[in-house]
Structure formats: C-alpha cells, structure tokens
Amino acid sequence: MQIVTTRQMAKIEAQTEKLGTTPKELMRNAGKKLAERIMEICSNEHPVPERTSIVFLAGNGNNGGDCFAAANILVYRGYCVTVVNLVKEPSTDIAKEYFAMLPEKVNIVTGYRSHNFEAAMEAAELDYMTMHDKDVSALKNKKELTAIEKILLKEKERMTNVRRAVVSADVLVDGVFGTGFRGRLENDLVAIFAIGTSAYKLSVDIPSGGDGSKGTISPGCFKADETLCLGCLKFGMTQYPLKKMCGKITVADIGIPQRAYDILEGEHGYYRLERNSLAGFPPKRERDAHKGIFGTVLVISGSSSMRGAAAFAALGALRSGAGIVKVASVEKCINTVSVLAPEATYLEMESDDYGFMLFDSSKDMLMEAMEKATAVVIGSGMGVTNDTMEIVRFVVANSPCPVIIDADGINCIANDIEILVNRKSDVILTPHPGEMARLLNCDAQTINENRIMVAEKYAEKYGVTVVLKGAGTIVSDRFNTAANHTGNAGMSKGGSGDILSGIIGSAVAQGFSPYDAACAGVYMHGLAGDAAAEKFGQEAMLPRDVINCLSDAFRILKEKQEE
C-alpha cells in the first residue's frame, strides 16, 4: 500500500486543486465519509439517532471544517450533535463557511480560553482546573464579583460545559489538530482529552497531538478507538507510539484523483508492507527444481558462549527456502548448531582463548566459501574483538554477493565506518535502535524519536539497505521506505533478530534484490511471529516457535495471494 509523508500529502492536495477538485469539495467529501463512518459505528450500539449524542471536538483549521461538514449531515439524520470549538473560532475560509452552515439544532460550545484568562490566572495565582463545584457555587452566590472572579467563573463554566459535552457523548470525534501538528499540547487540551468517558473515540485523519511525520506524540495525545485517515495513510501513523494512539485505522477516499499522485513521481516512495507487495515471493518451485536454484547462504556467526545466534540464523535461512546453508563458526558453536540444524553444512574456524573466531587462519576458507555463496549473513553472536572486526572488514570488502550484517557485525562497523565505504557488493544492515545509536554515536531515544529520518538518511548516505527493527520495523534504501505491520510483542526476546537475518539472507540467495528481500524477510518474520503468538501466547512463545511457525506463515501468505 502506498502511503505518504505529511509534506507529500500537502503537495497532493495542492495538485488536486490544480486538477479541478476544490478544497471545499474535498472537505465536503471528507465530511460525508466521516458522517457515514459515525453512522456505521452507531448502527449496532445506538440505533436510534434521536437518543444518540455525537460530540465533535473541533479545531480552528480544516480538520475542524471536516467536523462541521459531518455535523451538518448528522443533525439532519436526527442525531443529537454538539460541536465544541477547542482552539478558536474557525480561521480558514472553508472552515468558516461550513461552520456558518450549521443549523440551530447543533449545540455549539465555546471550549477555548478567553483573552484575559492567562493574565487573570497569573494575577490570582490560581489554576481554574483545581476549582471545585462548591467554589463555583460560592462565586455565583456572591452579590458582587471582582474582575478576576468574573473571569474565573466564566472559565470554570466553560470547562464545565466542555466536560458535560464529553461525558454525554456516545461518539466523541477528535478533529482538533491535523497532520501539521508539532510541539506540545496545551495543558487544558490535555485535561479535556483525559476526561473519563465511555464514548467511542474517533479521530479525524490523525489523533490530535500526534506527529504525522515522525510517529511521536505530545504528552496527553488523544487516544482514539479508531482513526479515519483521509485520502492516504500517513507514514508516521505506522510508527509507535503514535500508532498505539490511532486504534483501528480506516482510510477514506475523499475524491483525490489518481493523477494527483503523479506529482510525487521521482520522489522517494513510501509504503506499508502488505501481502500483495511481496509479489513473486516465495519463488515458485517447479517439479524439476534442485537445491542450486534456491541459492546458498553463508552464515558467519556465533562463538563458544553465543551458540544459539548461529543456530537461529541458519534455521531462519533453511526454513524460508534457501537451497544450501553453510555455517562458519568455531568448533563449540558448530557442535551445538549441527544438532539443531543437521541440514546445514559447516566451516570450522579457529578460536581464541575466549571462544571467538580468529581471522588469519580463516581468511582463505572464508574467501572460498563466499565465492560459492549467493548471500552472506554475518554478525550474530560473533562478539567484538580485533579478529572479528577484521573478519567483518574482509567479508564486506571481498564478498561477491550481498552481505546482511546483524548484531555484533554492526557493532564492529560502528568502530570503523569505513568498512561500509569499501564494500564490494550490496549491504543490508539490520540494527535495533541501540545498535543504530552506536552507528550514529547518539542515544537510543534519539533514534526512536526520528526512526524514519534516521533509516532514510543512513541508507542514502552509505548506499545500503537499512532494516531498523522495532514495532513498525522500517526498511529503507535510497529510493523507497516501507513500514511493516506484522509481528507482536511476544517477539521481543533474544534471538528474534538472528532469525530475521537468516530469512533475509535466504530471500537474497533466492534472487531478490536487497530491498525486496529485506521487505519480504521482515514481513514473513512478523507473520510467523503472529502465528506463534496465536499458538503459544505472547508471554510463552519463544524464538524457536517463530522458526517452527514459518511454515504457517508461508501457508497464510499463499492462501491470501491466491484470494
């Protein structure tokens, strides 16, 4: 599925107007789709419109205008409609126009602060949110009020009206801020969004307080049960924590002509990984096929103390269709892996006193093995020593086939980034946020707050494919960026990433480009994880269960592709 950045969405909307569809028409269409979705939501739980309260929390921009357009439809269908203006009066021309069209039957609540409010609060050293009903009653019973008391009373009455509207809602619609929101929500909006209600919460386009570009959120962001995304899904909504605030995501066609998307031709492409985006994977197996057709994966992985990493990488490659898998590691690791994966072949490397691979004695064997391989997976569990750094440098500089670098392989690169510059073939990096932080010499929080930009810029700078792991794993190269949606929290156990590197290596070995192989690997890895969670539960499932459920994942994929 093609998705867009907020900047691209603005370009598409501008192009739509040039093609003859006015912003007013788009708003009318958006209002219609929003009203239709609200009526669908109400059809089961609240079938009698006259007894159903629809409350719109509206901003002063075009998101608020979408709410006004929907409210105008719903009120004539018999629903009890309330519009709460939470920012200011409508500011855009079309929002003003749709607001003016609202009939008298619509209850309009002024939910924004008066101009004198801040000064009054500062002078009184009070917070109106702490005022109790008895305080309001006391003020109302006073014969004469000071200027500050009048403002306090007015503000408290405003919040009381807002709270009553929110609490009374059967469906609460958030249309305060759109995809252009940046920064932090004001305290009173945070307080309003936190009001307890049993209403079904529906956000328009994006939950207010969410950053549609980064996927980050402001504290107090509106938490929706569902988000009705207008026109296109925005890339930031594929990332956490914003995705968690969106609830169910539905995309509504608001009449943007397909030709408007041509404005993005030649730009970096953005996608959500779907089954139909894996066309051609897995490759068809003819009856006369043999192991040589499906490639050879060389796995350079493991050490005496981290043997499972090599096993998981090898099994990931074997279970996802590779014809031959060869594991290069130290003796103790091979002894363990050969029991778990007897289908693989092995290349024994000498080890140091601590059980890590040595380079000089292994160089010629590695070169010979690389010349026979169609993909190399390196890094998992190999440790970071002078020798393992030399191994990574040698492999990247000499491998005639694509190299997938994971875990300690990435940590080796972090100490000498020139390894990437001097590569011979394509490289795929599969870091988690901590490893990406080491590559960029920053902290993991910085990575998580800028996941999309980090993956894109690193891929562009070094000409590699980056698989930035995590919830909503991102795959990026110089031309495209994709976000994954398969997988679950049960996969957050040591070993999961080793399996992924093996699956990606298998896809590369079978002839897929680095970007396509990474997308296929990430999607299938998550799909197998979902199958394992269904069988064992997220708490009890293990990485080995993900490997065993790859067969379920391929079955599900084929069934859906056939449909």
Write the layout of secondary structure elements.
Layout: E1 2-3, H1 6-18, H2 23-45, E2 53-58, H3 62-75, E3 80-85, H4 93-100, E4 107-110, H5 117-124, H6 133-141, H7 147-168, E5 171-175, H8 187-193, E6 200-204, E7 226-230, H9 242-246, E8 248-252, E9 269-272, E10 296-300, H10 307-319, E11 324-330, H11 331-340, E12 345-349, H12 363-372, E13 375-378, H13 386-398, E14 403-405, H14 408-414, H15 418-421, E15 427-429, H16 433-440, H17 444-449, H18 451-462, E16 465-468, E17 474-476, E18 480-483, H19 496-509, H20 514-536, H21 543-548, H22 550-562
Parallel strand pairs: 2-3, 2-5, 3-4, 5-6, 6-7, 7-8, 9-18, 10-11, 10-13, 11-12, 13-14, 14-15, 15-16
Antiparallel strand pairs: 1-9, 16-17, 17-18
Helix pairs in contact: 2-3, 3-4, 5-7, 10-11, 10-19, 12-13, 14-16, 19-20, 20-22
Explain this structure to me?
With 563 residues, the chain is α/β, with parallel strands linked by helices. The protein has two domains: 2-261, Rossmann fold, CATH 3.40.50; 293-562, UDP-N-acetylmuramoyl-L-alanine:D-glutamate ligase, CATH 3.40.1190.20. The chain has helices at residues 6-18, 23-45, 62-75, 93-100, 117-124, 133-141, 147-168, 187-193, 242-246, 307-319, 331-340, 363-372, 386-398, 408-414, 418-421, 433-440, 444-449, 451-462, 496-509, 514-536, 543-548, 550-562, and strands spanning 2-3, 53-58, 80-85, 107-110, 171-175, 200-204, 226-230, 248-252, 269-272, 296-300, 324-330, 345-349, 375-378, 403-405, 427-429, 465-468, 474-476, 480-483. Helix 5 packs across helix 7. The model has no long low-confidence stretch (mean pLDDT 93).
